[in-house]
């Protein structure tokens, strides 16, 4: 007689996901419907660029811009970097660590940028900075509100000064947008750190963070060693930043689209009339 267990079909590994915070085992299909939030402990898992765009924009309205802008190897850092770029492009299907484009959010036409942590930790190299600056220019030219969802490890080490220059470039571009009174809303997902936190991610007219998102410039260990003091509990988390006035709102992912809609209603009343 055949043993029962040999008849059992093996379940594919990607059917279930285990929450890294509470250990809850979550059915993959439900997980996607719940915007990748753990039903037990509310941990917000990272969304990739496509998932984020899908969660925010009206269906089928996204038009990508500047897909063909991608980093080369300006410092001739070596084969390793070039190979990593090719590998990340292949694995993610993206050209670079940010996707930019135009679309509609609850009827509001906007320019949207979304970083994708899978691509080199969404670090900002020359291409990411260029795409952000161009997105700002489109917002300026077409008088459209700008929303950027950040999550990044910071500047891209392999591009050295070219990478650091993007902090100034993106900040200067946003300065022009600010003078034109066009709203820019910055959304900080976990984690938003270093060169990105210290440039365009912190320059929003409204800055929203996802719950428990890690936000900061240097890591806590480096800071502790530098100031020789113990850091307070919750340091560098979204809620701590809210308490200390560095972010304006901490918004649950399920409320994000609706919150952005309300902000767009409020910040761009003239534009609503134009687009409707
Ligand atoms: Zn959990």
Q: How many strands, what sense, and barrel or not for the largest sheet?
A: 8 strands, mixed
Number of helices: 11
Low-confidence stretches: none
Euclidean distance between termini CA atoms: 71 Å
**What's the CATH C level of the largest domain?**
Alpha Beta
Structural class by secondary-structure content: alpha/beta
- Portion of residues within helices: 25-40%
Q: Proportion of β residues?
A: 15-25%
> For this structure, what is the CATH homologous superfamily of the largest domain?
2-enoyl-CoA Hydratase, Chain A, domain 1
Work out the radius of gyration: 20 Å
In CATH, the topology of the largest domain is named 2-enoyl-CoA Hydratase, Chain A, domain 1
Q: What order do the SSEs take from the amino end to the carboxyl end, as H and E?
A: HEEHHEHEEHEHEHEEHHEHH
The counted number of beta strands is: 10
Count of all domains: 2
Which architecture name of the largest domain does CATH use?
A: Alpha-Beta Complex
Q: Which molecules other than protein and nucleic acid are bound?
A: zinc ion
- Estimate the global geometry from the Cα principal axes: globular
Mean pLDDT across residues? 92
Task: Tell me what the structure shows.
It is a single chain. This protein is an alpha/beta fold and 276 residues long. The protein has 11 helices and 10 strands. Strands 3, 4, 5, 6, 7, 8, 9 and 10 form an 8-stranded mixed beta sheet that branches. The protein has a two-stranded antiparallel ribbon with strand order 1-2. Helix 5 (126-142) packs parallel to helix 6. The model has no long low-confidence stretch (mean pLDDT 92). The protein binds zinc ion. Zinc ion (ZN) binds at residues 19, 21-22, 24, 38, 40-41, 43.
């Amino acid at each position: 007689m055949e043993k029962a267990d040999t008849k059992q079909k093996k379940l594919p590994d990607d059917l279930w996901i285990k929450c890294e915070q509470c250990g809850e085992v979550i059915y993959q299909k439900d997980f996607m419907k719940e915007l990748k939030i753990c039903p037990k402990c509310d941990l917000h898992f990272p969304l990739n660029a496509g998932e984020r765009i899908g969660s925010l924009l009206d269906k089928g309205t996204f038009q990508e811009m500047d897909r063909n802008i991608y980093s080369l190897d300006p410092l001739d850092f070596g084969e390793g970097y070039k190979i990593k770029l090719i590998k990340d492009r292949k694995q993610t299907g993206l050209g670079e660590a940010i996707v930019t484009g135009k679309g509609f959010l609850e009827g509001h036409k906007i320019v949207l940028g979304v970083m994708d942590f899978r691509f080199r930790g969404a670090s900002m190299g020359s291409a990411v900075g260029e795409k952000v600056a161009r997105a700002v220019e489109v917002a300026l030219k077409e008088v459209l509100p700008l929303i950027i969802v950040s999550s990044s490890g910071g500047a891209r080490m392999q591009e050295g000064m070219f990478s650091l220059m993007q902090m100034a470039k993106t900040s200067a571009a946003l300065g022009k947008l600010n003078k034109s009174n066009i709203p820019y809303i910055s959304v900080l997902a976990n984690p938003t750190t270093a060169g990105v936190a210290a440039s365009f991610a912190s320059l929003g007219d409204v800055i929203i963070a996802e719950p428990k998102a890690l936000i900061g410039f240097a890591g806590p260990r480096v800071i502790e060693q530098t100031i020789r003091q113990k850091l307070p509990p919750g340091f560098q988390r979204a809620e701590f930043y809210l308490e200390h006035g560095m972010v304006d709102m901490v918004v649950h992912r399920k409320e994000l689209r609706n919150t952005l809609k309300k902000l767009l209603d409020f910040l761009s009343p003239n534009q609503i009339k134009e687009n409707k």
